[in-house]
Amino acid sequence: MNFWPGSATKRGWSERRPSVEALSHLLVLAEHAHGRLKPVTLAAAGFAAQVCARAGGTFDFLVLGEGVGAVAEALRTYGAARVLVADHPALREPLADKHAHLLAQAVGACGVTMVVAAASTYSKDVLPRAAALLDAGMLSEVVAVQADGGGFTFQRLMFAGNVLGTATLEGPVRFLTVRPAAFAAPASAPGLAVVEMLAVEAVTLPNYLTFQAREEKVSARPDATEARVVVAGGRALKTSQEFEQLVGGLADALGAAVGASRAVVDAGLVPNSLQIGQTGKAVAPELYVALGISGAIQHLAGMKDSRVIVAINRDPEAPIFEVADYGLIADIHQAVPELVDKLRRR
Ligand SMILES: Cc1cc2nc3c(=O)[nH]c(=O)nc-3n(C[C@H](O)[C@H](O)[C@H](O)COP(=O)(O)OP(=O)(O)OC[C@H]3O[C@@H](n4cnc5c(N)ncnc54)[C@H](O)[C@@H]3O)c2cc1C
């Protein structure tokens, strides 16, 4: 094991055999966008802190990438024992074969009993591969954890969030993704976590995947998965211009991200990347404003964890009103310009 040069043998990490009864040692896989920490990582850390508070134990962060010094530094204040960092050009792109390989190595070398990451496109790609490499069990979309007599019981959302399942995982190592909305970031800890740099031997990394290109839509608006406020539009919008004028206009007045129902995406009004729901993005902002969206279960699956939901719809029977905290029965063409006007005057 060359992954932890000189330190693995000295500290006896490779000798450790994790067991269900042992104190938990969690590893939180950090997520970042080219060196900028993604806030969902802190939800995973919140889960780890909760497990440690209830069952005892410690947690570390693992940061994989290139030029990730700022990410590691930002993670030092959240109560982790260590921030483990593998910083190498070969890790620049989040290619799942390489990241999963290093994650599995870190688990074996550090005696990790639980690996956790926020449920996201990245973790869905990396965690199951690492779990498979270690022949370990995995649960996704966990929303609650209970410690009971040396074991753990997890609650997880299934079938687009319509079923709450209860499950346990056998084996010395468990892999989990958690719903970001279900866990708050841990409070800042008094001490700073130690940063440990890990040596990466590029030649030993798997090479099944090769990075070709990245196509990113550059937008002045925030990403819906990270924004505090999301304004989303549905089939009530008939053209791209109308969508931009009403949904974009209200979003800009609120400093919000923009989202859309699948109906609008399928109609070609907005790109696929804006879709919220079962087959789109899952968001949990502090405020979600649904404009002319009926509230189909597939859409609710992606936004019902939002803290406050506001819906504007002209149909009083629209199912969106069942989950909305505030509802306005009105035509969006009339209500939204008035709302934007009032917001701009403040
Ligand atoms: C496997 C599968 C996966 C899916 N995944 C997703 C997903 O990820 N995301 C998603 O969104 N959907 C998804 N869908 C589609 C989903 O079932 C709905 O068809 C879709 O969400 C409907 O979008 P909508 O609410 O915009 O349109 P509609 O259901 O047509 O609702 C439009 C609403 O606008 C209101 N309205 C109309 N005009 C006005 C106006 N002028 N002012 C105010 N209100 C008005 C109407 O009263 C109505 O409530 C999926 C479906 C399947 C089968």
Give the topology, please.
Blueprint: H1 7-11, E1 24-29, E2 32-33, E3 36-37, H2 40-55, E4 57-65, H3 69-74, E5 82-87, H4 96-110, E6 114-118, H5 121-133, E7 137-148, E8 151-158, E9 163-167, E10 174-178, E11 194-197, E12 229-233, H6 240-254, E13 257-260, H7 262-266, E14 287-291, H8 297-300, E15 308-313, H9 320-323, E16 326-329, H10 332-345
Parallel strand pairs: 1-4, 1-6, 4-5, 5-11, 6-10, 7-10, 12-13, 12-14, 14-15, 15-16
Antiparallel strand pairs: 2-3, 7-8, 8-9
Bound molecules: flavin-adenine dinucleotide.
Report on this structure.
The protein is α/β, with parallel strands linked by helices. The protein folds into 2 domains: 7-204, HUPs (Rossmann fold, 3-Layer(aba) Sandwich), CATH 3.40.50; 229-345, 3-Layer(aba) Sandwich (Rossmann fold). The protein contains 10 helices and 16 strands. The strands form 3 sheets. The chain has a 9-stranded mixed sheet with strand order 9-8-7-10-6-1-4-5-11, with helices on both faces. Strands 13-12-14-15-16 form a 5-stranded parallel sheet. Strands 2-3 form a two-stranded antiparallel ribbon. Helix 4 packs across helix 5. The longest helix is centred in the N-terminal third of the chain and has 16 residues, at 40-55. Mean pLDDT is 90; it is low at 1-21. It binds flavin-adenine dinucleotide. Flavin-adenine dinucleotide (FAD) binds next to helix 7, helix 8 and helix 10. Flavin-adenine dinucleotide (FAD) binds at residues 234-236, 261-264, 275-280, 292-294, 296, 298-299, 302, 313-315, 318, 331-333.
